[in-house]
Write a structure and sequence with these properties.
By secondary structure, the protein is mainly α. Helices cover 72% and strands 0% of the residues.
């Protein structure tokens, strides 16, 4: 048995989740206004194309899944950030060092999530070669560089979330974490100067 309102409601939730357009009830009101309920099941790609045509919005082409090389690059950057935050925390004391250790722990969690995504896409473990320790500049310069790197990475993760819907939720969450990290680093830099 199949109820039209339940189908449109589910349709609206899926559409909202995929495209981030308002609440499901706004989409439902739009569907009712445009002529009622859609009764047959539609391919999700076709569904998105039809809605974009009706709403007059066009988006960038969506790739099926992330290439493993791109995931490996994100993973390497995240692991390098975790290492640099851990090393930088050894140069500070008290709350400041604890904040950097917490940021390093969060970066390690992102590394684990990216390793899992890499394994799911490629079927291989992501064994990263050990990196040479890089000389860290003075603490204020290192914090400013890290802040700028986090903001750039947040924009990169948002763009990747648009291209790869299979990882969109994780990548958007990581982008939000990166923005939060950038704010923490900005506060820490202001406190040290």
């Amino acid at each position: 048995c199949f109820h039209p309102r339940a189908y449109v409601s589910q349709f609206a939730k899926n559409y909202t989740r995929l495209n981030g357009l308002g609440t499901p009830w706004k989409i439902l009101a739009y569907a009712v206004e445009k002529g009622g309920f859609i009764m047959q099941t539609i391919d999700p790609v076709l569904q998105k194309t039809v809605w974009e045509r009706d709403l007059g919005t066009a988006s960038a082409p969506v790739e099926a899944g992330p290439p493993p090389a791109e995931l490996l690059r994100l993973l390497e950057d995240e692991c390098a950030a975790a290492t640099s935050y851990r090393r930088l925390s050894r140069r500070l004391w008290g709350r400041d060092a604890a904040l950097l250790r917490a940021i390093a722990g969060e970066a390690r969690l992102h590394c684990q999530a990216l390793r899992a995504a890499y394994y799911a896409e490629s079927g291989q473990r992501a064994d990263l070669p050990p990196r040479e320790p890089v000389h860290l500049p003075p603490v204020p310069e290192a914090l400013l560089t890290a802040r700028n790197r986090e903001m750039e990475a947040a924009r990169d993760y948002e763009a990747s979330a648009e291209r790869w819907p299979s990882l969109a939720g994780d990548l958007r969450a990581m982008a939000g974490d990166k923005r939060c990290r950038a704010q923490c680093l900005h506060m820490l830099l202001g406190r040290l100067l």
